[in-house]
Amino acid sequence: MRVSNVTVRKRLTIVLLIGLLIFAVIDVRLGYVQFYVGNKLTALAKDSWSRNIPFEPERGEILDRNGVQLATNMSAPSVLVVPRQVEDPAYTAEKLAAALNMKKEKAYEYVTKKTSIVRIHPEGRKISHEKAKEIRALSLKGVYIAEDSKRHYPFGSYLSHVLGFAGIDNQGLMGLELYYEDKLKGEEGSVKFYSDAKGRRMPDIADDYTPPKDGLNLKLTIDSRVQTIIERELDIAEATYNPDGIVAIAMNPKNGEILAMSSRPDFDPAEFQSVPPEIYNRNLPVWSTYEPGSTFKIITLAAALEEGKVDLSDDHFHDPGYVKVANARLKCWKRGGHGAQSFLEVVQNSCNPGFVELGDRLGKDLLFKYIKDFGFGQKTGIDLQGEGKGILFNLDRVGPVEQATTAFGQGVSVTPIQQVAAVAAAVNGGILYTPFIAKEWIDPVTGEIVSRTNPQPKGRVISEETSEEVRHALESVVAQGTGKGAFVEGYRVGGKTGTAQKAQGGRYLENNHIVSFIGFAPADDPQIVVYLAVDNPKGTVQFGGVVAAPIVGNIMEDSLRAMGVKPRNNQIEKETTWLDPKLVTVPDVIGLTKQELTQQLMNMKLDISGEGDVVIEQAPAAGTKVKEGTPLRIFLGETKNNKKKEATMKYEPVG
C-alpha cells in the first residue's frame, strides 16, 4: 500500500521532534554535569584516586609571663607506608625492620595491609632526623617520611604538674596540655597525591598541599623567676626533711594571677610513662585536702574584726593552756598556756583558746557565713584539672565543739589553693578573686594577642579597714610572734604558721603533721602571697614556725628582689632571741679616704677594689641591716670636690 507524502512528512516531523527532544535532554544533562555538578564529580573522582600523607600542626608553645619557653616542640619525623605502592613487600619489610629495629614479620604485616596508608607504630613514630635520612636513602617504593613533631619540656620536672604532658600523637593528656587542648592542638594538614586502582601514582595530576594550622601559643601568669626560687627551696626542703610531700603556691593577691606553683614528689613530663599515675595525676596544690591548722585562724580573725567582736589592743584574754567546750577539753599548743595577753598577742602566739573565744563571739552562723564567703567548701574555679572542694561541717550538725575547733582550723578540710585565695582576699583590701594561670593566647605567626584573661573578682568579703587591721596583726606575727622564721630584713612580711595533725581511720596520727606557713609582702601593699606546706617532715620538731616559716622567708626575700620590689626600713622591729644572728647597721663610707677606712673600721671585714684613694661606691648600702661579719664591699676611685666624712662613722650593732 502506498503511503502518501503527507503521512511521510508527518512521520519525519515526529522523528525529528523526538530526536531534537532527545538531543535537548542530553545537552541539558551534559550542561548540568559540566556546569553544576562537574566540580563535585571531579572532586569525588579525585577523592577515590587520592591518598593523604598527614602533616601534624605545631602544638602551641607554653610560655611564662616574660616569654620564657616552658613547653615547646621538637621536629620528629614519622614513617608512613602506602601498601599498594610497595613493589617488593619482602624486601621492603626486611629493610624497614633493620632500620627501625623491629621484627621482619611485623614490618611485613604493615607493608601488606589492605588499607590505603598505614603508620608504622611505635617503631616508626617520632624518629630522629638521622634515622629518617637513613630510611630516605633506601629509596623504598611506597615508604614515606612525614614531617612530625613531639613535645619538649626544656626544664624537665620544672612546673611539671601544672604543665602536664602530651602523648605520642601530640594530644594533651594532663595539666594545662589537656585543659586547653582545643586551643593548643591546631588543625592537621596533609599532602594529597593521586594513584590508580593499583596504587601507582598518576603523574599527570599535581599533588595538593593543605598546610597545617598551628595551635595558639599560651602565655601564663607564671613568673619563672619566682618559680625557680620555689623549685630550689622545695629541693632543699626535700633533701633536708625527707617529707611525704611538699606544696607551694605564690599568687598576686591583687588580681588572682598564679606566679608559681609546685609540689613534691614531681616528675619529668617527657618520661611520664615511667612514673606511677598517682604521682602525675595529682596536682597537690589544687587537689589535696587536709585540715589547715592555724593558717585558718586568719579567717576567724578577719570575721571577728569585720563584725566588731574584738579590739586587738584593748581586749584581753587569759589562756590557762586549755578551754572547756561542752564535754571536751581543747588544749593550746603551749603547755601551761600563754597566760594574760591582749588579742593581738593571741594572734601572735597562735593561741587556740583565744580563737575559740573569737569563734564563740561570732557564733556558728556568722563564723560559717564568713568561711563560705571566703570560698571554702567550693572550688575556686582555677583553670587546672582535678580541683578539690574540701569538706565543711554541715551547719545543722555544728555543735559547740565543732564550732570551737573550726575557729582554730581543726575538723575542716580545705585545699591549698583555697587558702591562698582566701588569705589574698583578707590582705588585699577585702576582694576575693578567682585564681587563674592562663594569661594570654597569642597567634604563633603574627605574634598578636588573640585573647586575654581578665581578673575575676567574686565580691567583697571584708572592708578595706578590716583588711588593714589583718595585715598589721599578721605582720606582728612575723616580727614578734610564732612566724619569726619568715622575717626578712628590709621587707615588711606578714603571715601565719600552721601545724595540723593528720587523720587516718577517724583518728589523729602521732608525730605526723602537715606544717605550713602562709605569708605576704610588703605588708602595707601586698605584691605576693606565698603558701608552703610540708607533709610529715622527718628529723625535726614538727611546727610550722620551725620548718615552713624560714623556707617562706627565703622565697619571699629572693622573689621580692626578683620582682623589683625595693626594701624599705619601716617594718616592725623584730623581737630577737639568743638564737637569732646579731645584726649591724652598715655605715655610710662614701667619700672616706682609704686611710680613714682603716682607722675607723678596724673591726669590719672589708672587701676593697678599684684604684684610687677615695670611696666612691659601697655595698651593702648605708643603713642596711646585715648579719655581723658580713663583708663591706668598697670601690675606690678618684673624685673631685668630694666632701670627706666626719671621722665618727661606726659599725653599730642593732637591737
Could you name the key traits of this structure?
disordered C terminus; alpha+beta; Beta-lactamase; 32% helix; Penicillin-binding protein 2a (Domain 2); elongated; 655 residues
Q: What do you see in this structure?
A:
- The protein has four domains: 5-36; 51-220, Penicillin-binding protein 2a (Domain 2), CATH 3.90.1310.10; 224-562, DD-peptidase/beta-lactamase superfamily (Beta-lactamase, 3-Layer(aba) Sandwich), CATH 3.40.710.10; 583-654, Trypsin Inhibitor V, Chain A, CATH 3.30.10.
- It has 19 helices and 31 strands.
- The protein has a six-stranded mixed β-sheet, with no helix packed on it. A five-stranded antiparallel β-sheet has the order 14-13-25-24-23, with helices on both faces.
- Helix 1 crosses helix 2 (38-49), helix 3 crosses helix 4 and helix 13 (343-349) crosses helix 17 (464-480).
- The relative contact order is 0.09.
Sheet having the most strands: 6 strands, mixed
Low-confidence stretches: 641-655
CATH structural class of the largest domain: Alpha Beta
Total count of helical runs of at least 4 residues: 19
Instruction: Please bin the fraction of helical residues.
Output: 25-40%
Q: Average the pLDDT over all residues and give the rounded result.
A: 86
> Whole-number radius of gyration?
37 Å
Number of beta strands = 31
What sort of overall outline do the alpha carbons produce when their principal axes are compared? elongated
**Protein structure class:** alpha+beta
| Biggest sheet, spatial arrangement of strands | 7-3-2-12-20-21
N→C terminal distance:
145 Å
The name of the CATH architecture of the largest domain is: 3-Layer(aba) Sandwich
| Fourth CATH level, the homologous superfamily of the largest domain | DD-peptidase/beta-lactamase superfamily
Strand portion = 15-25%
The CATH topology annotation of the largest domain reads as: Beta-lactamase
The tally of structural domains comes to 4
